[in-house]
Structures are given as structure tokens and as C-alpha cells.
Amino acid sequence: MNSMNSSMNPLHIHLNKVEQQRTGVNNVKPLKAETVQSSSFREILGSQLEEKAVQFSKHATIRLNDRNINLTNDQMERVAGGIGQADEKGIRDSLVLVDDVALVVNVKSRTVITALNQVTNNVFSNIDGAVVV
Q1: How confident is the model at residue 52 (pLDDT cuts 50, 70, 90)?
Q2: Are residues 110 and 84 in the same domain?
Q3: Same domain for 77 and 90?
Q4: pLDDT tens-digit profile of 87-116?
Q5: Ramachandran angles phi, psi of 131, nearest 5°
Q6: C-alpha span between 105 and 93 (Å, rounded)
Q7: Residues 70-79: contacts with CB within 8 Å, 24+ apart?
């Protein structure tokens, strides 16, 4: 086996051994950790961000505009967190209350179905849970 630099990361050593077994060659150049880790990290991060994004149905977008509801970045982050909490509890359709705004959300698709402000004296149907964020 070729001599390896003792400062090599265990990932390099493992990948080199795998490549040596696959090719039968003992003089494989070490892979750069930045290349292996950054591409994998980018792919994972991208997929996680896509999964965490909150969508708005056409109906919800119209309701937000008609009712002059503007959600701040902070509120959107709290809504996303609330949807995550609802998902952890197995809720399918949730009422998410953020400040003075009520959102009915399909948890699986992370899609806001409708939106209301001034939440007093309203009835919400077809939900199986509620989250206050």
C-alpha cells in the first residue's frame, strides 16, 4: 500500500481504500474533502430548503391580497416552524395562528389554503389540529 500523509482525514482514507478495492490500483490520489462534502452538503441543503418552504394556494393568495394581510419574514419563519410542529404531531390540516392572522394549512404539502385576519368570532372546519406561533 502507498504511504499516506498522517494528517489525512478518515474520509479520505476510507474513500481511497474503496477506490483501491474497486480498481485494484494502489496509487489513487486522495480526494479533496471540499469536493466530496460541499456537493453533498449543497444537495442536502437544497432539498431541505425546498421541503421547508411554505406554499400559498391561489385561493390563499387572493385572500391575503383582498384582506390586506402582509406577513413579515419573522412571521413566515414562525408559520414554517408551526407547520413543522403540526407535522411532528401527525396533523393533516391545521389552523396556524400567528399574531392576528389565522392560516388554514395542508401540512403534508406545506400549503396555506386560506387566510384570515381578526380571528375573533370565526368557525374553522376541516382541520384536525391548531398551532399557535
Answers
A1: confident
A2: yes
A3: yes
A4: 999 999 999 999 999 999 999 999 999 999
A5: -130, 130
A6: 6
A7: 71/98, 71/101, 75/99, 75/101, 78/133, 79/54, 79/103, 79/105, 79/112, 79/133
